[in-house]
Task: structure prediction
Amino acid sequence: MIPQQEPDFNLNHLKLYYGKLFPFADLVRWVSYGNDGKHPGCDQSYLGRREFSFTLENDIYLRFQSFNNTLELENSVKEKSPVKIDIGPVYSVDPAKRYAYAQGENNVFAPVERELIFDIDMTDYDDVRYCCSGADVCLVCWPLMTIAIKVIDTALRDDFGFKHVLWVYSGRRGVHCWVCDRKARRLSNEQRGAIADYFRVYKGNENSHKKVSLTGAALHPFLATSYTNVLKDYFEKNLLTGQNLLATEERYEKILNMIPDESIASELRGRWQDSRRSSSAKEDINVVRWEQFKQVLQSGKHKAQGLRRCVEEIVFSFTYPRLDMEVSKHMNHLLKAPFCVHPKTGRVCVPIDPNRCDEFDPTTVPTLSQLIEELNYEGSISDIDGELNRTSIGNAITLFRSSFLQPLLKACKEEIENSYNLKLQQSKNSLGW
Amino acid sequence: MEIVRPQSRRNFLSSSNDAVSVPTIPLYRSAPSLEVRLEEFESFAIDRLRVLKGISDGMSRGKKPEEMENLVKDLWKVNMRHQHASDVLNKDIISHFVLRLVYCRTEDLRKWFLSMESSLFRHRFRVLNAEAQRAVMEEFNLPYRAVSNVEFESIKEKLGQVARSMGQPAPTADAIFYRVPFEEVPELVAGRKVLISQGYAYVAMNQIVSLIATLFRSQLSKTLVLTNRKWTSSIREQEKHRLTPIVEALCSSYLGPDYSQSREYADISLKDIDQVAKNSFPLCMRHLFDKLKEDHHLKHGGRMQLGLFLKGVGLNLEDALAFWRAEFSKKVGLEKFEKQYAYSIRHNYGKEGKRTDYTPYSCSKIISSTPGTGDHHGCPYRHFSEENLRAALDRMGVNSRAMEDVLDKARNRHYQLACTLTFEALHGVPCDAGINHPNQYFSDSKKILQSKQKDSST
Result:
């Protein structure tokens, strides 16, 4: 468990962090998407139409902030020391001047671009983790986030064809995902909703107990691939024993309740109630029971409709990603910027490499106080890259640049040049006749 | 389109006789250059409105696709015929353009019209024969190519998986698939009804309707905005004495009240609210109300659904703040309430942000919502498990005989009928109009209770 680390967060430290370590330039280069260049095809107003939002100490919200360059953002952040910086959409006009534009009959103030975003929060998994609950996370439940990253990241790239996907630790109990391809940024709300629904398997609310329902004679290829490549292994090799999913009566009852056929449930119940006495300590009780479960359900005589999917349904229930749908569906949702410091844990919202996400450990993510200590250790050096390299945030920034920012900016540059040339071509043609 | 006086009726489209034999759907790309008599201007529009309204009712009853198909076919046959076969197409076109004028004028009207016209188009397209379908596709000038044999072979297995996941047989080698950017077919993506690979969806011939309907919709959506501009800049003023009154009268009679301003039974006060909730709230609101009292908290979807309902019921802003504060402060504390939640309540009342006065949610909006973990909003008849629904109805006081009827309706996805039956069981009075809006449930209930009170006192 990560204890509440209030002492790790202190406003003077935060000031120092913004002053010495926070990568303003990288952040601005990212959200400018190449429009900060010298090319005539660049849209110079682009960055200035992006909403930033600051949360100050005492929960004061400053929405609709906008900045024209790195320096403006940096100065404002240093002056106000926000405990949280959120990034919103790019609007049709400078959001700071929205009232001036709203006077006319046609309300032209509207979001025009926004990364496709996903927010996955551990609290949504409270019914399938027994190690901790609410805001806490530990290494036993963190694999649920690893699974989410693997499943969503693979589908975003292989199915939807996106290339520029950024994963970020949310600082406490979850992960954020930013899909930054030009096409993704220009999706309509309806199209965003469609993608979110494509990912949605977990249905049901507080008033209906059925959580995952898989029907039909086969699984959709996306679900089938997720199941065989990620979910099944994580369930059997990790969560089953890690969470002790079948160890006690209360826990196995929950799983038995998901079997639509009561006679099979009671058959297993009978065996498990007995096996308490007879089981040897050699094999893990969860594994033994899961094997029995599969054997009973997948044996020839129970291959009836409805039971066929039961094993998969249970694995999906305990592993499949649970998205906060509303965040993904609308362009105007705010999302916390990477490299912010979580005010409750003091941990930095560092990027996560999706290819090595199983190595990510939320309990070793650098904290504000740790960074400040590292800064103080060597005394003061003025070179900013020197500061970065010396502190443990250096790796995070290197990862951000090499695996995300550089390929993204290369693609942006090409897109800007191509669309500029195309426009040039078109205007030439129209001049010709 | 030119609107003429009744006495000066001239010939319609001269070529209309040729058009009779081709059973196709016009795409309404531009207003036709033909003359329309004033009374037809109105009567055609009303006929088409009957169709659209019928579709709207069918959808909010949760009718299944095949039921909708028959419904639309009947509605169209009954309302859109014309004594001259040659004029059927003209009536179709004219009525569409008149309603476009009627429904271009506000965001809500446009949304409704767009949704109903798209649905109508979809159903009409689906019943066309293959040749006519191809003709429509050609008119849209689709830039997509059919998947080649080689490509088909390489993805055959996955296409088969998709088909079987929907309970359909695997496609054979002569099946036609189109490779389409996934953004063009959002509803197929949302339902996982297509194979998606590297940004492209593989759309089967029998799914092409989804693609076409999406195109139709986006085209109509754009033109509605343009029509609105024309309406406000010139038509409204020019036609002040002739068309404008007709146009303005046409929409209001059919959308039903939106309950944004409570009227007859306005102003419930905070001290009565518990009693009123018990007697006159529909189950969806009653459930949210009870949960709020129990947990001292509701997630966003629940706050919106209940909050706007209470506003429609007549709870003024001050009382609404007091109401929510009383509950939330028990859980999150007063300070956090003022900081995090008070804003959105004022926002609902149009006092913050873009200052829109939000309207209470209708049944169809509530039914189509997707409550997730921790959520209590939505329509209980749709979103509750049967056990929970049974228990909830029992708590409301629905007797066991009526209970089975209600559950039966809910099982068959007639959510609003289930709610109507609940209403009838609790009030002992038939509700012929059916329940279409939680605030309608409320006001009908109040009406009945008040008249009962009067009867017993005299």
Q: What stands out?
A: The beta strands of chain B are 2-4, 35-37, 177-181, 195-197, 200-204. The CA atoms of residues 51 and 77 of chain B lie 9 Å apart. The longest strand of chain B covers residues 177-181.
